[in-house]
Amino acid sequence: MEEIKNVKGTHDVYADENNAYEKVENLMKSIAEIYAYQGVRPPVLEHSPVFVRGVGEGSDIVRKEMYTFLDKGGRELTLRPEFTAGIMRLVVQNKLYATNELPLKLYYVGPVFRYERPQLGRYRQFNQFGVESIGHNSPLNDVEVIVLAYTILCSLGLENVKIKINTLGDEESRNNYRNALKAYFAGHIENMCVDCKSRFEINPLRILDCKVPEDRPIIEGAPKIGAYLSKDSQERFDQVLEALEALQIPYEINQSLVRGLDYYSETVFEFHYKSKEGNDYGAVGAGGHYGKLMSELGGPDLPGVGFSFGIERIVSVLKDDGLLEDVKNQLDAYIMPLDKESMIYAEEVAVILRNSGGYKVDMCFDNVKLGNMFKRAANKKAKFAIIIGENEVKEESVVLKDLAKQEQITVKVEELVDKFDELYEASYGEEEEEL
Ligand code: HAM
Question: N or C: which end of the chain has fewer CB within 10 A?
């Protein structure tokens, strides 16, 4: 029979790596909550126009990367390639903009799907965590979103995160800039890559994103957005930068940063981090302000701003930099019944330690030799062993062994939780506090 494997571009997450995902996502959620964001869960499936209209017909995502299909009822559906457009559909359909004080602040986490060429840090199914702050046009809203993302990355232990920032200006600025780019690239496009040739027709701003080395010198010489900004857009961007400085958030302006999704206007930004091993997984997160996305999806003319992190990329840099040592699967206690008759009593002890003590406890269900059980305890990185034989059952006690210190005592079962707390605190109290 042909071997059944996972789909190209997907990956399995298990064991310690799953703990890493949980840790990263939980930390992101808890910080978003401190910033007064609320969780939402939009569906993975949407009608295709949500993304075609939202992300934009000219974007690579819509042109080449969407998983679109007809369901059995003949509806054209798409597996979400990103969250923002789906969130906006959710907000418009449920009229959340009318029933909440604005900005409406939402966070989300889950899988997204893009038919891209898999490589380091690039998958076809990957996970994003992100936030959207919707309905208020203050530049401080952009700033708050950037501060939140930066705080999360710092709290995960990443030092020297690079924030690249740019403004795409308002519609007037972008139209003027687009015309200037068109005029400039008209003289060079013949000698540029095929992708740039189609970008030239669809949206010349995208050419700035091209990574082909031969095209880079031409792109470096292109006009810069700064010269085409309207007065309002320039003022807005200056206010964003001023607030970032006041909050001591480091940034670098990158006038080539245009982002790959069509809904952006004004402030756009990306978060970059090179792991100590030197691996470059691409941006670990990115986002920006969007002026017309809500009205594009049939809602009122309200702007928003948000970002999304790529969880895979963040877990990869954390792993490279040794910042995930605390997520290793480890047991607090491994329970070792010495014979079949001790099994039920051993299970009772396990339940007491789990339910009353809150400890992570596992038990040996096989009738194997004691030495074998100690090996299993070591494999599970258990901190304590609890040995139960005929005597212990009779006396309603257990033998409690600290596996690091190799010391053991006999404890009555009614005193077990208190005694366990005491020994655990003595051996591991400080370490737990540090985590
Ligand atoms: P994006 O730049 O397309 O923006 O994706 C955000 C992040 O998702 C990237 O910075 C990267 O970390 C991760 N990512 C993207 N593609 C892949 C891939 N193929 N494999 C692994 N990770 C990937 C958005 O999705 C926007 N919705 C962000 C946003 C929110 N803008 C406003 N609000």
Answer: N
